[in-house]
Write a structure and sequence with these properties.
single chain; mainly alpha; Serine Threonine Protein Phosphatase 5, Tetratricopeptide repeat; 2 domains
C-alpha cells in the first residue's frame, strides 16, 4: 500500500496491490482497487480483467465473463474468460478463448496459459506451461505461490519439485 500511496495514479502499482488483496481473500477491496484503475486509466491492462478475476474467485462466473469482455488488453481478457467460461461449463467457448490465448501469446503469457490449465485441473498441461514460463523467464512466476488458479496444483506431487526448481520452496525462502 505504501507504493500506491506514494504514486496514487500509477495503474501498474494499483494492479499489483489489487492482486495482493485478492490473494488474501479481501475480494471487496480488490474489486474496488481494480475499478479505481479503470477510473484512473481506462486502457490500463488488468483493470476490467482484474475485477473479472476477483469475480471468478467468488464463482460469479457470468459477471466475470461480462466484466472481462470490457478489457481492452486481449491476453488478460482471454486469461480470465477461459477460466470463467469453464466455470460456466461452456467448454467449447472456454477452449476457444484458450486457443486464442495460446495462438497469440504463447511467447509472452506462458504463466497465464498454465494457470488456465491449472484452473481446469489439467495438471499435465499446467506443468508443461509452467516449465515453458520458467524457460521464458515469465514475470508471472512471481505470483506462483499466491495465484488461486495455480493453487489447484498444490496437491500434485510435482508441485514441491517445481517450487524448488524456481527457488520458491519454503526452505529456500528462509
Amino acid at each position: 500500500m505504501a507504493a500506491v500511496s506514494r504514486d496514487p495514479v500509477n495503474a501498474e502499482m494499483r494492479v499489483q496491490y489489487g492482486f495482493a488483496l485478492e490473494s488474501v481473500g479481501r475480494y471487496a477491496e480488490a474489486e474496488a482497487e481494480f475499478r479505481r484503475i479503470v477510473e484512473l486509466s481506462p486502457s490500463a491492462p488488468w483493470g476490467h480483467a482484474g475485477a473479472a478475476d476477483v469475480l471468478l474467485r467468488q464463482e460469479r462466473f457470468d459477471e466475470a465473463v461480462r466484466e472481462a469482455e470490457r478489457e481492452s488488453d486481449e491476453w488478460t481478457r482471454l486469461t480470465v474468460q477461459a477460466q470463467a467460461l469453464w466455470g460456466l461449463n461452456k467448454r467449447a467457448e472456454s477452449d476457444a478463448a484458450l486457443a486464442q490465448l495460446i495462438a497469440r501469446e504463447a511467447d509472452t503469457a506462458a504463466f497465464q496459459i498454465a494457470l488456465v490449465h491449472a484452473y481446469r485441473r489439467d495438471n499435465d498441461r499446467a506443468f508443461e506451461w509452467l516449465e515453458r514460463a520458467l524457460r521464458q523467464r515469465d514475470p508471472g512466476l512471481a505470483w506462483l505461490r499466491t495465484d488461486m488458479s495455480i493453487a489447484r496444483l498444490y496437491d500434485d506431487p510435482r508441485w514441491p519439485a517445481f517450487l524448488r526448481k524456481v527457488g520458491l520452496a519454503d526452505e529456500q525462502l528462509n
